[in-house]
Write a structure and sequence with these properties.
Blueprint: E1 4-9, E2 39-44, E3 47-51, H1 57-64, E4 71-73, H2 79-82, H3 89-95, E5 99-103, H4 105-114, H5 116-119, E6 130-134, E7 140-142, E8 145-154, E9 157-164, E10 167-169, H6 178-184, E11 189-193, H7 206-215, E12 220-224, H8 233-239, E13 244-246, E14 252-254
Parallel strand pairs: 3-4, 4-5, 5-6, 10-11, 11-12, 12-13
Antiparallel strand pairs: 1-2, 1-14, 2-3, 7-8, 8-9, 9-10
Length: 255
């Protein structure tokens, strides 16, 4: 099945520009250097699904003019990936339906703590209406799409990436075990985090991300979850080998 993928955000947890930063990247006039927190929209002719609701979720939805959203799938419970969940209530109102949310047990626990009012036995009017679906390492179906979870490591935290057909999306990782790498092989498009050039405790560097895409034999890789420390989009892009590119906010792919 053909997928349309839109990059809603491609920045790390601080976003780019970073508050109070005087660097050249944060003051760039290139729109590709303006990065909201990392998230994607996956669409088919009959379904719209977001992976992660960042602190910028409302802005991202308004920026692309989305009017229909059927589900949210979460990778992990860090704040920069869940903080925008409250704003699904706008879709509740206009679609007259609850939002289906897919998350593992660890992420569910955080969602219930951070958005307790949405899961309370007695809820006041206007809070988000959410139906939680617990996922684990087994494939699961959202609408007509099969998601294959890929467990990666974000330092010591297990995080889910997802393969949907020929498309694989992985963010917040610095290690992927061999059995999980096998789930990625054969993907036509891989999206992978590449925080910066220097080593980091919980994220792939640009060099590491390129090497992993090469090892897996992926035809086209896009790098996301980018920090201002990586450099200017235009300059970094000129250094990349064929089939390897920086993603940017608003980039659309058909896979």
């Amino acid at each position: 099945m053909t997928l349309d993928v839109t990059f809603l955000g491609t920045g790390t947890s601080t976003g780019v520009p970073m508050i109070a930063c005087p660097c050249a990247v944060c003051h760039s006039t290139d729109a590709r250097d303006k990065r909201l927190r990392s998230s994607i929209l996956v669409e088919t002719p009959s379904s719209s699904i977001v992976i992660d609701t960042t602190p910028d979720f409302r802005t991202q939805m308004l920026r692309i003019g989305l009017t229909t959203l059927h589900a949210v799938v979460f990778t992990h419970p860090h704040k920069d990936h869940i903080a925008g969940l409250d704003d699904v209530r706008a879709f509740n109102f206009f679609m007259q339906a609850p939002m289906h949310v897919y998350a593992n047990a660890m992420t569910e626990e955080t969602l219930k703590r951070e958005f307790g009012y949405a899961f309370a036995d007695k809820r006041y009017p206007g809070v988000p209406e959410i139906i939680l679906h617990t996922i684990d390492d087994r494939p699961f179906i959202v609408r007509e799409l099969t998601f294959i979870p890929i467990q990666v490591w974000h330092y010591k935290m297990p995080v889910y990436g997802f393969r949907i057909g020929d498309f694989t999306y992985i963010t917040d990782a610095n290690r992927i075990e061999e059995a999980e790498r096998e789930k990625i092989r054969g993907s036509k498009v891989l999206v992978l985090n590449a925080l910066r050039r220097e080593s980091h405790i919980s994220h792939f560097t640009l060099t590491e991300a390129i090497a992993l895409a090469d090892e897996l034999g992926v035809e086209q890789a896009y790098f996301t979850h980018i920090s201002h420390q990586l450099g200017l989009h235009a300059e970094v892009s000129r250094e990349l080998p064929p089939g390897r590119a920086l993603a940017y906010d608003g980039l659309r792919l058909t896979v």
